[in-house]
């Protein structure tokens, strides 16, 4: 398989060059994932690939189309399961294009020997999450792999939604002078999953923030503000999403570190395990780049919605240091917020 690939002439950094086989970091949503797409998949597929969701014309309409796969371990965690995570994640990918999600497909990849009761719980969670989000599961598939060839249940989803006329949202529209907004606390989903996986205990149970965000996006668009960019910071967390936007828009991002909404339990868990909260996955939060003059209007609409009650501005988009994200500390210094190379927490979504 590797005979036709010339690793020496790839332009990616050392981690991928010296790894002629797949490693866990390739699925982490960070630099290694980006390199895999840029140097292996895009040359094969062509330039039409747009990212987490694509907006394409169909007759007089524009539709958003997205696909995703879910391999979270464990399959059940505080606040959710792989079932509702798959629905919400796909709905959110569509919503970040400004689309109204309509239809989903769901494919189950099952390991031989998995209890049917667990599969039933996950299927019920898929149905309940779809109904709660107002979308319909209209098609699907089931495959079974040998015992030892999988790990319980994996899900693959695809989603379709409609994009209203005049809506133009994308990372390429990020512009100097934009306010950088976030809808709430950072890192909650990753720590919720990790608390079960690693047996961590906190004063209160950390519950995943998994939620459908299209209603929140609709409220933001309803203000009439010119929303430039939306992103749900899942794999790779806020750090990966902001770095991707900065590079796509050829702008710099400056964060105000004291303004970052990091709950104490997330900060404690990350300190204990040597993790950066900005690189921990979220499943019910969004980042928004909006013109500074419209930031207060958008924030008010976000705070009036249940999924945006904790919304705040965390930074600004600048013309300096294009493609780079920096954070200003409480002491007045700055630090670079790098794109994660691989994945701090594998199998988190």
Automatic annotation (TrEMBL):
BP-aspect Gene Ontology terms: protein maturation
NCBIfam families associated with the record: hypE (TIGR02124)
Homology family: Belongs to the HypE family.
UniProt domain PurM-like N-terminal: residue ranges: 51-163
Pfam families attached to this UniProt entry: AIRS, AIRS_C
Gene3D superfamilies, A to Z: PurM-like C-terminal domain (3.90.650.10), PurM-like, N-terminal domain (3.30.1330.10)
Name of the protein in question: Hydrogenase expression/formation protein HypE
Domain PurM-like C-terminal, first and last residues per copy: 176-321
PANTHER family membership: CARBAMOYL DEHYDRATASE HYPE (PTHR30303:SF0), HYDROGENASE ISOENZYMES FORMATION PROTEIN HYPE (PTHR30303)
